[in-house]
Design a protein that fits this description.
Blueprint: H1 3-6, H2 30-42, H3 46-57, E1 60-61, H4 62-69, H5 73-85, E2 89-94, E3 97-102, H6 106-120
Antiparallel strand pairs: 1-3, 2-3
Length: 121
């Protein structure tokens, strides 16, 4: 068999070696995978990553996020709507302000790890 033919063996005759002996990881449902994809897409914008990093420290209102990130209020509000729609943040009205907080710490860990990885490489 030539080198060019090596990658074109028939699956039933191919020697799978060690990989065939490793059990596959259990898979979540398609709905769960789709939900995880939506969350990751929502976290993909740099401003949203910065928002999560700020909310990781404590809850914040919109004008605090505007000051911390140097982004306009309408843009912060738009990004908060996206994060809220996928369940990353929750807003609670306190008087005239809405205080935003992370729903849980799982996503903060993902963001912190992604930032650390980006800084390493």
């Amino acid at each position: 068999m030539s080198v060019a033919d090596a990658g074109h063996r028939h699956p039933e005759t191919a020697d799978h070696g060690e990989c065939a002996k490793t059990p596959l990881a259990p898979m979540p449902s398609k709905e769960t995978l789709a939900g995880a994809g939506e969350i990751l897409r929502a976290l993909a914008a740099p401003v949203r990553i910065a928002i999560v990093l700020q909310l990781r420290q404590s809850q914040r209102c919109v004008h605090e996020l505007v000051g911390a990130l140097g982004v306009t209020q309408p843009l912060i509000s738009q990004h908060l709507r996206v994060l809220k729609s996928v369940g990353v943040v929750h807003g609670e009205r306190t008087g005239r302000e809405v205080m935003y907080r992370l729903v849980d710490d799982h996503l903060a860990h993902i963001v912190v790890d992604a930032v650390a990885h980006a800084e390493e490489g």
